[in-house]
Amino acid sequence: MTVKTDIEIAREASMKPISEVAAKVGIPSDALLQYGPTKAKVTADFIDSLKNRPDGKLILVTAINPTPAGEGKTTTTVGLGDGLNRIGKKAIMALREPSLGPCFGVKGGAAGGGYAQVVPMEDINLHFTGDFHAITSAHNLLSALIDNHIYWGNSLGIDSRRVEWRRVLDMNDRALRSIVNSLGGVSNGFPREDGFDITVASEVMAILCLSKDLKDLENRLGNIIIAYTRDKKPVRARDVKADGAMTVLLKDALMPNLVQTLENNPVFIHGGPFANIAHGCNSVLATQTALKLADYVVTEAGFGADLGAEKFFDIKCRKAGLAPSATVIVATVRALKMHGGVKKEDLKGENVAAVAKGCDNLKRHIENVAKFGVPAVVAVNRFITDTEAEIQEVMKAAESMGTKAFLCTHWADGGKGTEALAQHVVGVCESGKANFKTLYPDEMPLRDKVKTIATEIYRAADISCDGSVETRFKELEAMGFGHLPVCMAKTQYSFSTDANKRGAPTGHIVPVRELRLSAGAEFIVVVTGDIMTMPGLPKVPSADTIRLNDQGQIEGLF
User: Fold this and answer.
1) Is 303 one of the annotated active-site residues of the chain?
2) 335 with 479, same domain?
3) Total domains, the chain
4) Which CATH number belongs to the domain containing residue 489 in this structure?
5) Which of 62, 67, 74, 75 is catalytic?
6) pLDDT by residue (tens digit) across 148-180?
7) Is this structure's pTM higher than 0.90?
8) Which CATH number belongs to the domain containing residue 308 in this structure?
């Protein structure tokens, strides 16, 4: 039997006009800014008209620590949303937009897979509605204004050695990580060290995803600290008069994008902050709008629950006043075997003992989610190589933690493959068992916030900071930023900062390498270990096999 690729399945989709999909959840056609027949933005005026409506129930989809075997978190999010609609519930999904970097690199797109996909898949994974281009342009406009200000006399006294604002590009390009700009003589400005990050790591991306409206967006953009003077006083984006022009570039990008699943159910795909260096969630506006329109909203957070769910709870929910009713933790037998010590090339063979050992990782995530007062359910994303004995081992592990695991076949069967999960999640949401709380209070000192996450979520023995980091903690609190949440930048592959330590390690030390202030996004980025803000392409990138066929159709996207 030939298995169709994601793009082949997407190409065969029977899409409805986006106005019909919108009408299912009460969005009138005059509230849509259409980008062709199958995708649209929802206008700010319509969103504002919803503010007095009650909210639906919010369901977070997260996962175990990712492995090269794959977990299928986005696919499960889409499958669960389709499953909820299939059992007669009014449900909307809220997802992040894919970055071009992973699409042409190694990870691929982020529109789901198999028969649990969002379409038009090609558009979503490529230029979509231009949001990422707008963010790139707004970010780099600020970069240009900084160097222009220095060139024309530098009245603010910016210390060119202390310019914090790098440039961005939505592509994996390691050659741009560290550069020197303004070379070529007097007419080109004052040379200084600079560099590029990928667009999804931009603070502008994080700001867009946390902003309530255009006024809030402009205020946050103005608050960005771009540099320091020689006497270490902060210089903000509004000081170089960048906030107004940046907001103009972002006015359409702030409106959530509406598309559909293969089963013609509504999906908001909006924003895509890096899950390592930022908070890794879709926009607050998209999530809040979905909650006003549907009885159930299924959203996801980046990477495993130790990174993605923690940031979703401690940053997004704290800032937006959200209170989730349930959490779904995605796992695969294959990934659990890798956490149990099996090599990728040996995953096809049955190994119940390795699954049992790997379930320590799953159990840890179930325990951690409970610390936020949100009930957890496990979704086992089935692969054809999974054996009954291996699946039962996962079920047993979930039950030992006081929860339930459900076998899901949404990749092959769409919403039909998640009906049992959907029914149970509805029951959890309606049970009233959720009592959401953040892990730490705003007033806790910054260093203690980091240590709390490290010990409570990562199960570390402690954190380690050199003198410069200890000083920076004190400086940030003295500057008035001590109340902000912390955004941990850590490897996604392990509870520790060593990507090779799979399973459920304990007693390790989390080294804090650097603190970065995101004053506009209103969080402190805590860099642990070796985190890249500009990825590189692999030896054989996905771009090698992406092409147009003789019919002018795109091939190779996944």
Assistant:
1) yes
2) no
3) 3
4) 3.10.410.10
5) 75
6) 999 999 999 999 999 999 999 999 999 999 999
7) yes
8) 3.40.50.300
